[in-house]
Amino acid sequence: MVNNHLYIFGAGSSKDFGFPLGNEFFEKAHILSASPQEKTKSIRHIERNLKAVEKILRSIFHNLPDEHEHWPNFEELFSLLHALKSKGELNITENDIKKFVALIFHTLSACHFMFLDVNGIKKFSYYKDFISNILKNAKENPSFINLNYDYLLDAAIEEVVNDNSLNAIPQNYKIDLYNVSNCEKITQGRYILIKPHGSLKIAKCNKCEIFFYVRDTFVPRIDNKRTPCPKCNESITYSHLIPPTYFKNVPTLIDAHEIIKLVSNAHKITIIGYSFPPYDIEMKYLIFRGLFKNKKDVLFKIIDFDEDNDVEKVRNKYKFLQLFTRKKMLFNTEGFLMYLKHVNS
Ligand SMILES: [Zn+2]
Q1: Could you tell me the residue ranges of all domains in the chain?
Q2: Which listed residue, of 6, 56, 138, 197, carries a Cα 20 to 30 Å from 70's Cα?
């Protein structure tokens, strides 16, 4: 029997590769913008957008700390601003919102480049081997929900598929994608990868209303000056990122039914670095709705990090999952990178 194995990736799955968690985001942007080396264009973008965002935030919050490391979780902050704006209690413009999204885009893009600069290749090879083993396992039918903007997982799947000529089929994002270099429609593949929060890899032409995929593994750049839409020649703006608010109620890639379907059909669910934070309430309840429909005893495996390797503490974070299965949940608390090193050795 073939098992449907669903993998859910959260911010913790990227942390070991140099990407910030929600509560580290502003600090990361600050560190990058303050780096002493010669500033690249991308670093200057971070610097400029961080200053703009700081100015907006200081006009709203009089007690915003001086140190960026003490700023709140950016998803929570974004949700609050969005709630205030939608109630008409905050005068913040679409242009202000764009500055926030630009800051996210440039900061995470820079993280991809830094990751390569700091000898990230070896770490990435652990990641690739892990994905390769998943895709080669004939007894399991894998699918992936990735809640991150970064594209480590996308790149790993793409490289594994190309390396092994596993039918050379690209992954399936469950939306129609076009190749940004030639505007050809990308064939739908057999690996389902859903990125409900958008991705640095995906861009949208607002005129043609179609999505583009950037093929090159480590070139995320959808540059608003240099990348014209291959269909209408209009400039494509930044990558399609869904601003991180509670309800994501902006034009969205979220295919609620697809997520519920994947969760409800799963025999096994492996959750990597995602602890259902309260500021991601929409995703949390989509997954719960899927679990409610799932009448199997799902096998849950949790890969998380606890500095004391305290399984009980981690188990506590996920106790609601126990409502959906009689099976014993499996826990790993050493962090994703250590897990990859062990599982591949
Ligand atoms: Zn267009």
Answers
A1: 22-117
A2: 197
